[in-house]
């Protein structure tokens, strides 16, 4: 069991194959003491949900770097609710929209879609880890 006793599911959603950022997130969370379940790239919403259910996860961290996160990630909260894990902490980050858009416009879209937090491109992993710890109370 990890020192924090919290399980986090990480992966890259949709047809995105950007694996490096996902590995960095996995490494950073593991070093902080989280149990990390990395489902890898090309992951469907159902892959995230199934992994969260199978591991009794505390949070799902969705990555997307190819700009289609808004399309790929829409409806994930509703599917979590349908699967009985509606209260799970849900984060998304990366290059999650097509083109350069004002973050002040982008972030509310994802919060309205049920994500607890959304992180813009260039977010330092250390900042996301601190937010995760605060949200999980560890």
In short:
With 138 residues, the chain is α/β, with parallel strands linked by helices. Helices cover 41% and strands 18% of the residues.
Q: Could you describe the 3D structure shown?
A:
This protein has helices spanning 20-31, 45-55, 69-73, 76-82, 103-112, 125-136, and strands at 7-12, 35-38, 59-64, 89-94, 117-119. With 138 residues, it is of the alpha/beta class. It is built from 6 helices and 5 strands; from the N terminus they run E-H-E-H-E-H-H-E-H-E-H. The longest helix has 12 residues, at 20-31. Helix 1 links the parallel strand 1 and strand 2. Helix content is 41%, strand content 18%. Strands 2-1-3-4-5 form a 5-stranded parallel sheet, with helices on both faces. The two termini are 15 Å apart.
What does the secondary structure layout of this molecule look like, with pairings?
Blueprint: E1 7-12, H1 20-31, E2 35-38, H2 45-55, E3 59-64, H3 69-73, H4 76-82, E4 89-94, H5 103-112, E5 117-119, H6 125-136
Parallel strand pairs: 1-2, 1-3, 3-4, 4-5
Structural class: alpha/beta
Order of strands across the main sheet? 2-1-3-4-5
Cα separation of the termini: 15 Å
The average pLDDT score comes to: 94
Rg, Å, rounded: 14 Å
Largest sheet: 5 strands, parallel
Helix content class: 40-55%
Low-confidence stretches: none
Taken in chain order, the helices and strands follow as EHEHEHHEHEH
Please state the overall shape, judged from the principal axes of the Cα atoms. globular
**Tally of individual helices:** 6
How large a portion of the residues is in β-strands, by DSSP E?
15-25%
| Secondary structure tally: strands | 5
């Amino acid at each position: 069991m990890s020192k924090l006793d919290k399980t986090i599911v990480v992966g890259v959603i949709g047809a995105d194959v950007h694996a490096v950022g996902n590995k960095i997130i996995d490494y950073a969370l593991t070093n902080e003491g989280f149990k990390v379940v990395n489902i890898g790239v090309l992951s469907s919403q159902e892959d995230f949900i199934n992994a969260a259910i199978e591991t009794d996860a505390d949070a799902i961290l969705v990555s997307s770097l190819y700009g289609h996160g808004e399309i790929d990630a829409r409806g994930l909260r509703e599917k979590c609710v349908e699967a009985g894990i509606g209260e799970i902490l849900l984060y998304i980050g990366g290059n999650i929209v097509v083109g350069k858009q004002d973050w002040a416009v982008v972030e509310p879209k994802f919060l309205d879609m049920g994500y607890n937090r959304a992180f813009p491109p260039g977010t330092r992993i250390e900042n996301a880890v601190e937010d995760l710890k605060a949200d999980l109370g560890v």
